[in-house]
Every structure is written in structure tokens, then in C-alpha cells.
Write a structure and sequence with these properties.
mainly beta, about 40% strand, about 5% helix, 16 strands, Immunoglobulin-like, single chain, globular, four-stranded antiparallel β-sheet
Length: about 260
């Protein structure tokens, strides 16, 4: 009996003590599913800009020492142009800077041509920092000299590029901040254009009937702006609703003057 007890004790002593098995590692938590982005609801703003009053005819221009320009007989660029049913040309209609955000690709490609010793278009919109393509269609030398007013009212140059006859297109960047850039040709002083720089793509220039359309505008209430380089700015409140067109009509008169 004593021998049996001894053998049992030896057997117990030779057994390896059991240790608790390690707990299985916790599985990493699955990332929370992100909620799908809510599509931005948009609508359209469409309408006209009209002119009320007498329009003075363009003054005759002398074209010294440039036979090409003399042949094409360009007209003074700083004039009010009115089309069918008193529609006002050369107006950029836009949401105010900072009023909305949108893909710059919604804006049309910006091109300024020198054609017949005139800038075409006379007034145009562009997104801040967007490419501006400069094209010289004329068989003469031009340049594109752009200015903005600084805080004390002086002109600061923001663009200056010469473009000779047959030169390839030049691409320049629009200013990075909203503003109005007055463009002139230092060679032919009657050539002028205005570039309206905005920080979003919701703008349009009036056609020869004074019509404009702003597409894919986020829903909301806005103070719509119409900017004419000679007659200043007009505003109108509009409310854009989803998949609908808000109508707008703005009017300038001969007594309205840009500051």
C-alpha cells in the first residue's frame, strides 16, 4: 500500500502544470459605414438685362501707322452696346463672390481674341486662377495689358503679354482673387476688354438680346449681380429651387455710371 501511494505521488509530480490558454485576440472593429453623400440640389437662373435710355454712337477712331487696323475700321471699345428689344450686351451676371461653391469645370473655357483690331469678347467672366487663352488672329502686333485697382485707387498690372502676327496662343492664369480686370492694348489704345473674376463658376455674359443663363446653381436665396464696365452694378434677389428656373430681369439706364 505504501508503495502504491509513493508511485502515485511520483506520477503527480511528473505532470506539467497546466496554464490558462491565452484569450484569442479581438478582431479589429469594422469601420463604420459612411453615410452616402447627399446630392446637391440645383436649379437655374435665367433672364435678361435691358438698357433704358439713349445710346450714343461710337466715336470715329484714327488708326495711325497701322494699315491693317485702318482696313478693318474697328470702333471705340468704351461704348454702350444695345441689341434687340433693348437687350444690353457686355454684362456679366453672377452670384456674388463667396455665395456658393461649385466645380470650376462648370465654367466655359476662357478665350480672349484679338480680331479686326478689337478684343473679342468685350466683357467676359472667369474663375479665379482659371486658364485664360490669348489668341491673335490679326496680321499685326498686339498686347494684352491687364490692370486692377488697388486699395488706394491706383492701377496694378496683373497681366502683360505681347503677341505678334502669327504668334501661337498664349495661356495665362486669371488672378487668384475676385475682382474686375481692365484690359487694354498698349499698341492700339481703343482696344479694351474687361475680365470679371469670380471664385465660383456661376456666371454668364449677356448675348446680343441681353439674355443670360446660370446653370446648376445650388438651391438657396441670392443677391444676383449684373456688372457692366461702364454702368456699374445692379442687384436683384432671386431664390433658386430644385430642378426649376428662377426668372430675373435687371435694368440699367444712361445715368448709371461705374465708379
Amino acid at each position: 500500500m505504501r508503495r502504491l501511494l509513493l508511485l502515485a505521488g511520483l506520477a503527480l509530480a511528473c505532470q506539467k502544470p497546466q496554464t490558462d490558454a491565452p484569450a484569442p485576440a479581438a478582431s479589429p472593429a469594422a469601420p463604420a459605414a459612411s453615410a452616402p453623400a447627399t446630392p446637391v440640389q440645383t436649379g437655374t437662373i435665367a433672364g435678361r438685362v435691358v438698357f433704358k435710355g439713349k445710346v450714343s454712337p461710337a466715336a470715329a477712331i484714327d488708326h495711325p501707322r497701322d494699315p491693317f487696323c485702318e482696313k478693318h475700321k474697328p470702333t471705340e471699345g468704351k461704348v454702350t452696346r444695345v441689341g434687340k428689344d433693348n437687350g444690353l450686351l457686355d454684362v456679366v451676371v453672377r452670384l456674388p463672390p463667396g455665395a456658393a461653391k461649385g466645380d470650376p469645370a462648370l465654367a466655359p473655357r476662357a478665350v480672349l481674341k484679338q480680331s479686326g483690331c478689337m478684343y473679342v469678347p468685350r466683357v467676359f467672366g472667369i474663375v479665379a486662377g482659371q486658364d485664360l487663352e490669348l489668341v491673335n488672329d490679326d496680321r499685326t502686333m498686339h498686347n494684352i495689358h491687364g490692370f486692377v485697382k488697388n486699395t488706394v485707387g491706383d492701377d496694378d498690372t496683373v497681366l502683360n503679354a505681347g503677341q505678334g502676327m502669327g504668334a501661337p496662343p498664349i495661356v495665362k492664369k486669371a488672378p487668384a482673387e475676385p475682382g474686375i480686370v481692365r484690359i487694354k492694348c498698349d499698341v492700339h489704345p481703343w482696344m479694351v476688354s474687361w475680365m470679371i473674376v469670380t471664385d465660383h463658376p456661376f456666371f454668364d455674359a449677356t448675348n446680343d438680346e441681353g439674355r443670360f443663363t446660370l446653370k446648376k446653381v445650388p438651391v438657396g436665396a441670392y443677391d444676383l449681380e449684373a456688372i457692366h464696365p461702364l454702368h456699374g452694378k445692379k442687384t436683384q434677389k432671386v431664390t433658386v429651387t430644385a430642378d426649376a428656373t428662377a426668372a430675373a430681369e435687371l435694368a440699367f439706364t444712361e445715368t448709371d455710371k461705374a465708379p
